[in-house]
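Quick board copy: two proteins, each given as sequence then tokens.
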Amino acid sequence: MEQLNQFYQEELSNSYFPLEQTTQGMTQLELNQFIQKLLTTIELSELAELYFQQLKTTLQLSGLKIQYQDNMLELGEQVKNSHQKSLKCMESNLHLATIIYSFPEQMSLRSWQILQQMHVNFSYPLKNALDFQKVKQFAMKDFLTSLGNRASYEEAIVRVISQSERHNAPFGLLVLDMDNFKQVNDTHGHQEGDKVLVTCAKTIQNCLRDSDFAFRFGGDEFCCLLPEADSRINGLIAERIRHAIEATPLLKTHNISCSIGTATYQDNDNQLSMFSRADEALYRAKRTGKNCIKAA
């Protein structure tokens, strides 16, 4: 039975285990309803939550881990001394993911069969959700610098505002513009200009904390979201970026510096008002003489 640890095997003509004689688990009607429920979303996190809740009800699952590429989704609790089953998700010979199921007690043979049955039926919507996430992530990235793009920023700031309000914690926004960038394109061409932009993006990213986010809005304009950052932390990170841009050899060669406007989330803010305040601070920095930081 342990050899059935793949949800898909080409030699299996029927992916269903007979359930008629069991008093546990899902009836055929419940199974059909389960499959229909999985088809209601293509978002990975929502799909995983639906799956976890069904497993929790049907098999008293305590915890679930979905490992894919270099990422992992965790749901429920990893109970100490729990009994785990690990099932691979394969498409032909391609390994898509591994799912680790944690149970508070040793599984019966029938429960093990039901788990594999549910795993099989989860496999196809999981593959679609993973494919959709790849497409979505590609659409949310700036092609040149690999930072998030404007669409990615719009999605992220809604999430960060929600977290900030839920935990009553501040967060910061930095809006950055590279000084003297136009002359690089005019004098050395767009290929050199692209090198400068990539270097700027890497320099900004290296100055941020692991919890922070960087985005390119287009041209030579960037912004950063800083969760759980007050005005003091905003200023420290902004200065770190300003100094690093000024000191990076390639950027120094082209006389590239940056002007930065900062804003800290306030009770009456929304994503538009906060960006507007940071953007106005940026223009004050530009008018002041560039290569400086102004706070909203």
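And the next:
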Amino acid sequence: MMSEARSGYTLPVFACASAVAALNYLQDKQPLEAVEIDLIKPPQQVSIPIEQIALLEENKALAITRSDPGDNLDLTANTPIWAVVSLQEKPPVEEAIIIQGGEGVGKQLNRDGKAAIYRYAKELLQGNLQPLLHPNQQVTVTIILPEGKQLAQRTSNAAFGVVEGLSLLGTTGISQPLTAPGQLTEFQEELAQKAQQFDTLVFCVGENGLDLARKQGFNPEQLVKTANWMGPLLVAAGEQGVQSLVLFGYHGKLIKLAGAIFHTHHHLADARLEILTAMGAKVGLSTDLLQKLLASETTEAALKLLREQENGGEMVERIYSAIARSIDQRAQDYIRKHAEKTVQVGSVLFDGKRNILTVSPLVKQLFPDFEM
């Protein structure tokens, strides 16, 4: 009998634990083996082990934790998270808590290189550090991910404007395992609810897709987040009687469906460049260009290469139209095979700068006002 998959915690939780341990050491001069953290979302206290604590200067300390996302296919598993904390007297008009990104924390290109430390991480740090501060104290926290730059090369962060490291991203402290049935059940329940209201639903792979779909004018009530559970949710849509689907997502994710890969997590299957190259061959690209596409580091780099060709715009349109047709057909076939239902499927693919690459004819038919 298989044991139940174990949940863990998201990266911001460990960054917060390191900061709390370092601040506590500066306040009490006692190295802690573990710290209690209020996750805020969800509202519960958890104990996080502390690996090391060191005093760097009289009012500056370093603490280290190690990421544990549970039984999750997460590339940050076991990576060290450092927090350097310095304590000083608080100037009258300044914030009590200053949060900075150090080595290995990504920089947001669309925000002038600002550290990729997002809302939940800041809320977590502020909520747990504030009670430890004495009146008139100010603390500066610098989060460091020593392996961040190296690990970031294995993500699509750069495609979304985050470079030189990882993001402290998340909306909750709990990291649910990829295989956790609860996560899929939650998505299926949302789909079933919305299928009662609409004949057409819009599947968005991630938060980026959800955000862009809203900005493109799609009804938020028709949007369904799929995460990497595209296959099971396609089947569920068929079983719930949905008549048509729009798959809205980043080309580096949705392209997998063109190769009949219906679980899109990169740890499970990754043939993006091979699929792109095959589609290039299908539309008649030269052997030399096909070899360069296959040798590209990422799908975003391959797209850039295509755009740089003499007739790049036309070439991108041809190849991505072919990719969208393949995605639509494969998805329809998948639903027909596993749910024994016919559902029309159309796709919208966008690039790393959130520009729409291609729109299936069905999407234009279902949403006449949609513009690229």
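Board note added afterward: The chain has two domains: 8-175, 181-366.
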